[in-house]
Amino acid sequence: MTGTAPAPFTADDYRARMDRAARAAADAGLAGLLVAPGPDLVWLTGYTPPAATERLTLLVLAPGRAPVLVVPTLEAPDAARAPGAGALSLRDWTDGKDPYAATAALLDVSGRFGISDNAWAMHLLGLQRVLPGTSHVSLTEALPMLRAVKDAAELDLMAAAGAAADATFEEIRKVPFAGRTESEVGADLAGLLRRFGHSQVDFTIVASGPNGANPHHEVGDRVIERGDMVVLDFGGLKDGYGSDTSRTVHVGEPTDEERRVHDLVREAQEAGFRAVQPGAACQEVDRAARAVIEAAGYGEYFIHRTGHGIGVTTHEPPYMIEGERQPLVPGMCFSVEPGVYLPGRFGVRIEDIVTVTEDGGRRLNTTDREMVIVD
Ligand code: ZN
Ligand code: ZN
Ligand code: ZN
Fold this sequence. Notes:
The chain has two domains: 11-142, Creatine Amidinohydrolase, Chain A, domain 1; 152-374, Creatinase/methionine aminopeptidase superfamily (Creatine Amidinohydrolase), CATH 3.90.230. Helix content is 31%, strand content 25%. It contains ten helices and 20 strands. The chain has helices at residues 11-27, 39-45, 76-80, 99-104, 121-130, 139-142, 152-172, 182-195, 256-274, 282-295, and strands spanning 3-4, 32-35, 47-48, 58-61, 68-72, 89-93, 111-115, 134-138, 200-208, 229-238, 241-242, 245-251, 307-309, 316-320, 333-336, 339-342, 346-349, 352-357, 360-363, 372-374. A six-stranded mixed β-sheet has the order 6-5-4-2-7-8. The longest helix has 21 residues, at 152-172. The protein binds zinc ion (3 copies). One zinc ion binds at residues 244, 308, 335, 337, 351.
């Protein structure tokens, strides 16, 4: 994806986001924010540079000052077409000039700045060379909730991405599994996500039989057999917002144990979902799901956190994990995805994206959570 984000946001929307970010920076005791190309820049301005290059592109946000986007001169016309361009001014620099000196002229010579996690180290080092009195902190560490609470338009886009992922599942459950490789089914998933409007496919996990016991197994050459449990986990971006859902299907009739473990994960997922309430701490969602699995004696086989935030990326804060005391706020979107992974045998994961409302959670994935039998 290059150029501009397709989301239907106006310069006023981006102005409001940049104002909010600058105020949040001030509240956090920061002199400003330095935002490199990536999800933060997309969310704040709608701009993605035409190519990821070594040339410096950096949004400078400082409390009480107008936002400035530092861009290479040759990319200035692209930046000027970004949906948020009307809410900022451009400062371009030409090859052969020092982009860091140009940026330094916009900044206080001292202070602590939040900088995008994905900013290139060479750019941060260049800034530190010209502004030795400044220090830097990870933007995600300083302002983890900056993009976490979605507004109504963003929630509509999240719901549409979820519906597209659900439509993908409704189609994939009809395709033959037995006798085909994981890679072949994964290619089907990717094709369906694009057919239902995704511009970017981030992952298509098809983890069959023993591969299902590895939560991050993607796809491989294993031929799926009758009797396999198959963990499907797929998502990406549709109109700039993320989808991510998991269902675990079985090829033919399952054993009693497979059914029991699937039921257990489904109950854990339901318990995690029911723990979603405004004001509840993120860790309560994890605890609720985990308690169900632990009570059944499978606690040691649930080897990851219960969920992660999602928005303009498919993995971001807040995290549903023990120790995360961040309270849930209406408009937050995150996954609830407990799993059980039995080494060498099979795995089960069930995942929905959930958004927080005034009276609890609302699922953005609504396909069957009962075990689906495939051919
Ligand atoms: Zn089986
Ligand atoms: Zn997932
Ligand atoms: Zn997920």
